[in-house]
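task queued by scheduler; priority normal; single chain, no ligands, no partner chains; default sampling; output format set to structure tokens
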Amino acid sequence: MEVLSLGEKVKKRRKELNMTLKDVAGNRVTPGQISLVESSKSNPSMDLLDYLAETLDVSVEYFMESESTQADRICKYFAQMAEVHIELEELDKAAKYIEKGDRYIEKYNLILPEAKNLYLKGMLEIRKKNFTKAFDYLFQCNIIYSTHNFKGSYIDNFMLVAKTCMQDESLPMAISYFHKSEALFEEGVLTDEIMLAKVYFYLAIAYKKSGNLEKSKEYTLKSTEKFEIMSDKKAYGQFLTRLAEKNEVEGNFEEAFKYSAMSLEIFHDILGESEMGEIELNLGKLYEDFENYEDALEHYRKAETIYSKDPKKITEVYLHLALCLANLNRKEATYEMLQRLDRMILEEDFLGNIELYRVKSKVESLFKNTRGAVNNLILALNTAKEKKLKKEEAEIMLLMAKFYLDKGKTVDSFKLLEKSMSMMKEGEVEA
């Protein structure tokens, strides 16, 4: 990776396109002027810069990006790679990436990348169990943050020290640093609700380890409340919206903007998940129609994960799962699913119960239990009649008619078919 001056960028791009100085100059300027730009002996005007960008098929922004900005981006890459290798326990590789970053940091006097590299050195030494050295690096990192008023960057250091101390059974220090992290939220320096929930969680664990059960219970409740809000994405989005409105009223526009953006992102996620749920559910239905029950099952399971918090949709998924499992002759799993549906569908949900009876009838039929299949259709029919659900009543009669016809009971089949058709003709059921 290299940092290029403006002239070097022009020359590099010209070479990539196999163009001569004369080709680039065209009728706009002389080849000599292009040569002066490439050797950094002349700074191009904005008009010439626009011309060069168009001729060399790059953006003006590419040419205007400063060397320090390029170096900063390269350092971010090295830092990411170092952190990845630390997580993979490939510590020598991580150290090499940190060293690469240090060279750019020193040459271009990069402040935040220097702090990040000190943090990574701290992580590296912790993995090597060199805690004194690690904490020294993290202390140096915090000096940079403090000097340049980057208070929001403290959290990573505090949490790393706290977790390390907790693992090393230095519980008083761990609790102290978790509280330092908590203070960043209380002082309004940080507003990341997920991180705050994690701080509460670790405080609960640390206090339990130290034997202070009252404090552990206090922070367990706090973390639970936060995580419950966040697990319900819609409720969390509404919570963030209220925070945005509160900050707007108080005149904190930057905070209001941040919370509104977070809220919008969550609602976009909800819409995306809903769409993916529909896709997975309908893919399952398609495979079920093709009698490819293994693939259907796979897609229904994905839909189940997505719709876990949506009672209406998860019921639909479970109904299909029950039929799918029955078609795969997995009796135990099928009946477990039907029992789950029995618990989920409320007594007053008449349409839901009718659909469940119909699914149970199909299941019993697949398992060659004729009596069970008929009895469930009768239960569905009685519910439809009692609640005057004419459309469902007619549909169930048609199902029973087909069932009796398959069993050779022609007379009973035609009676039910005639009754069903009569209801439709009389306008009791929509066509």
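post-processing summary
- The mean pLDDT is 87.
- The chain has four domains: 6-64, 67-149, 151-231, 239-344.
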